[in-house]
Amino acid sequence: MMGPSGNDGDGPYPDLRSAFMLTIFAMLAAGFTGIAFIDFGLLAAVGIGQAIGVGAVATMGAQRVAEPQAQRIGLRALDLKLVPTILCLAPAVLLVSELDNFAADWTGSPAAIEDSEHSADQLSGDNRGLVDRYDTDNVDAEYDRPNNTDNTDIADGTSSESGAAGGIANASDLRSRLIDPDDPWSLLSAFVVMVGIAPVVEEFLFRGVIQQGLVARMGLLRGVTMVAILWTLLRPAPIAGIPRFLAAAVASFGLGWALGMVRIASGSILGSIMLAASWAAIGLSAVALEGRVELPGMNIEGTHLPVTITLASLFIVGWAGLEIFREAERRFNSADGGVGGPGRPTGRSRTSIKALFGGDE
């Protein structure tokens, strides 16, 4: 059995190229594994794909991390004094939701939905005419019956074409297909996948295996930034317009950067796992309460968060983010940085903004 190796001749593992390959392998492994279990349901397939696919890639990558392996990856106890500060970053998900709301306003989602539904209705009308022509020509009833069924659905406003078009334009409609707020089993499955599995395996790979290598090579700011970019590649993004897509990308990068700083500040991946799980729990709660409790800006289309909540979230997240950054900087530059933190840097070790862009120090 081969022992772990932390060096590739140039520095700690992984380097940037290896980190990118680990990310691609994780995406492919999760996708193919999920497809193999699709008969268990979409949510179950996603959960199994992440647990087996991403988990396997992370485990294999961890074998090449230099000793002390556990400390470098962050498999250590969480400093409980930091827990309140870390949880103060939880409202960041509210700010992400509000950013998406503004992007949706800019996109003009309601009009886009109406246009897509109108186009779908026209397509359905063309299909109806096609069916009539088939009936005139006495087409076999075996082919006639499905078309009549489609026409009934169209009359009821539930045509498959309309559903598909609406699902693309309306993010909440697509979300409702994945999670049924009225089905306890659906909510439980979503909780296990979104709050239980995804934060653990993703943080183990990105903030555990990948980040310790990149931060050791590139320094605090540039290392955490690169990991946040790689993590963003795995994030789902709405396809209902460029503004919403860009807003989702920016939000994912910001959340990933915060998770990276929490990992450094706490010295443990438990901190970033806890924060990621709290974000997922807030989002899932908004879905579960849909139709029962109205949460403007969260589970009601076309609305925004109350201004007081937005401003309070900005203040709390800003304060907590500054405290976490200061602690991460202190821990990174301490003598403990090579063991309890991400691994001793082999290149730039200072954390100025100038260093992030490769300036002289």
Key features of this structure:
361 residues; globular
Task: Write structural notes for this entry.
By secondary structure, the protein is mostly helical. It has 2 domains: 16-110 and 173-356, no CATH class; 111-172. The protein has 15 helices and no strands. The chain has helices at residues 16-36, 42-62, 69-73, 83-87, 92-107, 109-136, 141-156, 160-169, 171-178, 184-218, 220-232, 242-266, 269-288, 307-332, 353-356. Helix 1 runs parallel beside helix 11, helix 5 runs antiparallel to helix 12 and helix 6 (109-136) packs antiparallel against helix 8 (160-169). The two termini are 43 Å apart. Mean pLDDT is 79; it is low at 1-8, 109-174 and 338-361.
Low-confidence stretches: 1-8, 109-174, 338-361
- Radius of gyration, in Å, reads 24 Å
Instruction: Estimate what percentage of residues fall within beta strands.
Output: under 5%
Mean pLDDT metric: 79
Largest sheet: none
